[in-house]
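Record format v2
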Amino acid sequence: MVKNELMKYSCPLGKAMSALGSKWKPIIVLVIKDRKLRFGELAVRINVISRKVLTDQLREMQSDGLVIREEFKELPPRVEYSLTEKGLALLPILYLLEEWETKYHVKDLNEQDCNLVGKEIEKTVV
Amino acid sequence: MVKNELMKYSCPLGKAMSALGSKWKPIIVLVIKDRKLRFGELAVRINVISRKVLTDQLREMQSDGLVIREEFKELPPRVEYSLTEKGLALLPILYLLEEWETKYHVKDLNEQDCNLVGKEIEKTVV
DNA sequence: CTGTATCCCCGTAGATACTG
DNA sequence: CAGTATCTACGGGGATACAG
């Protein structure tokens, strides 16, 4: 788990992008939303991510104050992830980004279909 | 100039992040703002970026429809960059991201000062 | 079930030198 | 002035196997 070294400079935007500028973080935020999800649920919903990477991303988001990790000492183990207030505050901005992309979308070749948000996801995405 | 391969899947958010999820693109958008800037002016304002990388980023942003490149056939050569409508539409979202980061900012060690936006930049930044 | 531990690939950034 | 052309290094992301 190497700390993201992007944006060592501390422009607000630079810091913001370092917190969510990676490949998966914005998606993880959008998938968690306002509920609690177990590790396995996250892995299933974003089924193209490897478990190692998912773990890494979650750890970084945790130390960036975006997600809360709750570990239940049970057998079998259970861990639930949810968004912090900071993470929740990010949601509307991410929705704006989606709108922006959708609005200015240029038809692209070889697109795979994928509806991550905008509709409730209760099954696999991506 | 290799096309960004992040986010091959086509979730709106994925596509959005592929258009501005790189290290410099959001900053470039914020620096250009609503004016035209010459290549050299951009390079000076973001003085820690190498010219090669700046060129690469601008080319990608051009093909993503974020910036307009105007080349004047003069000597010495002059090239002006400005934001497209799509790029301009991104500005308010980036400002929101800045606000978000600023609001939830956790005091960090070894910060370098840098005020990229929020105040008018007419000199070097970063 | 929820992760680690390794290993490897490949893209991106960066430095430097050169060009029309 | 506004880029190219190379070359290199780094590190994130992915695959796989294993562990508590």
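Strands of chain A lie at 37-38, 67-72, 78-83.
Chain A touches chain B through 49 residues (CB under 8 Å).
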